[in-house]
């Protein structure tokens, strides 16, 4: 099995106010698991480093301490469309 076997392509229109999250596998695993459990992980990521939100390193540390996130590299890129 190659990496290409895991790639999915889709298409659609990007709309104002859309947000894209690009993340490494450990963070993506947490994100998908959290969403499957009925939570909204995008709201946590959307509020990073705001008055009410955690900064990214603190979020990663907390999720690791809660065993919700594998101890692996974590990179996140958020793209907000305006």
Protein described:
The protein is of the alpha+beta class and 82 residues long. The chain has a domain of 47 residues. It is 34% helix and 12% strand. The chain is built from 3 helices and 2 strands, in the order E-H-H-H-E. Strands 1-2 form a two-stranded antiparallel ribbon. The longest helix is centred in the middle third of the chain and has 12 residues. The model has no long low-confidence stretch (mean pLDDT 93).
Distance between the termini: 39 Å
What Rg do the Cα atoms give?
Answer: 14 Å
Strand order of the largest sheet: 1-2
Give the overall pLDDT as a whole number: 93
Q: Which structural class fits the helix and strand makeup?
A: alpha+beta
Beta-strand segment tally: 2
Q: How are the elements arranged and paired?
A:
Elements: E1 19-23, H1 25-36, H2 41-46, H3 56-65, E2 76-80
Antiparallel strand pairs: 1-2
């Amino acid at each position: 099995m190659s990496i290409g076997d895991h790639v999915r392509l889709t298409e659609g229109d990007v709309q104002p106010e859309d947000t894209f999250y690009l993340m490494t596998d450990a963070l993506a695993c947490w994100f998908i698991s959290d969403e499957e459990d009925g939570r909204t992980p995008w709201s946590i990521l959307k509020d990073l480093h705001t008055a009410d939100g955690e900064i990214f390193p603190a979020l990663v540390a907390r999720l690791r301490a809660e065993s919700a996130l594998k101890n692996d590299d974590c990179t996140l890129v958020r793209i907000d469309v305006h």
